[in-house]
Amino acid sequence: MWIFHSANNYSERVFFVTWSRWCLCYCAAVACLLLSPVRTDDVCLSSCVCARNSGTVTCREGEDTEVPGDIPEWTSTLVITGRNISTLQRGAFMTNGTDLEVTTLLLSYNGIQVIEPYAFLGLPRLHLLDLSHNRLETISARAFHGLPELRSLYLNDSVLPVATTQLSAALSTQSLSNLHRLELAGNRLMSIPLRALDIYNLHALVLVNNSIETIGRENITNLYQQKRLRVYLSLNPFRCSCGLDALYYWLKNSSQCPDAKHLLCSEPEAKRGTPVEMLQGEDVDCGTENLETVSYVFLGIVLALIGVVFLMVLYLNRGGIKRWLNNIREACRDQMEVYHYRYEQDSDPRLANVAV
Ligand SMILES: *[C@@H]1O[C@H](CO)[C@@H](O)[C@H](O)[C@H]1NC(C)=O
Ligand SMILES: *[C@@H]1O[C@H](CO)[C@@H](O)[C@H](O)[C@H]1NC(C)=O
Ligand SMILES: *[C@@H]1O[C@H](CO)[C@@H](O)[C@H](O)[C@H]1NC(C)=O
Ligand SMILES: *[C@@H]1O[C@H](CO)[C@@H](O)[C@H](O)[C@H]1NC(C)=O
Ligand SMILES: *[C@@H]1O[C@H](CO)[C@@H](O)[C@H](O)[C@H]1NC(C)=O
Ligand SMILES: *[C@@H]1O[C@H](CO)[C@@H](O)[C@H](O)[C@H]1NC(C)=O
User: Name one GO biological process term (predicted).
Assistant: First the structure.
């Protein structure tokens, strides 16, 4: 036994050391497991990735059809993309009734169809909201309420034609008074979907790749008044005829359209592909032609009226005129007779002798 023990003394020590190492490891593991729930910050939402250092939570493709519920309060950038969120509900981003400090919210490619009133409540610090590449068909007039610090709103390729009127209503809220940049590319818009421009602080309005054929004088006047505003308009099907004049002179006269060189005519057929800037004034200036035609017609009518009035006066006074003519004739005859009499007197030789 002793011999065996002493013989195995070495191996026993080895065994003890190994065992105690295992024990330490095990204890550490248990401690880790016990302590980890305390550090909740590192636990992320299901099917999301959390990067605490950069304050970013990213939720990509998933089965969820709603906005994740427990967004960590340290989140500054929240990315939710590739999900099937058909409705953005009222207060969708409110966690437990408290405000989040999120400044950037990216919601592209989520198949969003409906934005309910106050959907973005509880995000008072939001600077940038990207709703691009969704399928919006219902947008509440109060959809963007409660976003006093929003500076950039991206809605490219997202608004269906049925929702353009609703979009105008939703965007004309005082709550967007800090909006600097509004991107509305690829929405088949026929006109600027803003009712007024002076309620924002807009520096960039991106309307490329829409269905705008022209912009009317009223809107151009408003654009002139927003001197710092830049409007991007390429890839629109401009109708280069009568009615493009206000837009044409605005492009020539202001530098508010940075992509002016890329605006092309789509109509009429003969001018398709011609840069709008290369047009001549008379190509778009049907205003003066119209004015000339109108003034000639007007002149003709006035002359005809004067003629008619003249004829009526003549007709109504025909009795008086006859009398007047008779008077004149008689006066003439009297005068002639007086002359005749004088002549006869002057030529009487007796009288001539008396005078001498
Ligand atoms: C999205 O969800 C709706 C129901 O919420 C369902 O009808 C639709 O088929 C889904 N679409 C996709 C692309 O998963
Ligand atoms: C939610 O709110 C309740 C009371 O309003 C509070 O007790 C609880 O701690 C809150 N939870 C979170 C995650 O903020
Ligand atoms: C559309 O939106 C994206 C952001 O999602 C932005 O980077 C891009 O410049 C926008 N404009 C166009 C014309 O695509
Ligand atoms: C223009 O917008 C349409 C959607 O309205 C989109 O399918 C197309 O790819 C866009 N074209 C370009 C050049 O961006
Ligand atoms: C653009 O013109 C339309 C009517 O012509 C008007 O309803 C709209 O308010 C105008 N928008 C801007 C921004 O001038
Ligand atoms: C040219 O632009 C100025 C402001 O930049 C504006 O006051 C003026 O009316 C414009 N002229 C025409 C012909 O549009």
Answer: negative regulation of canonical Wnt signaling pathway
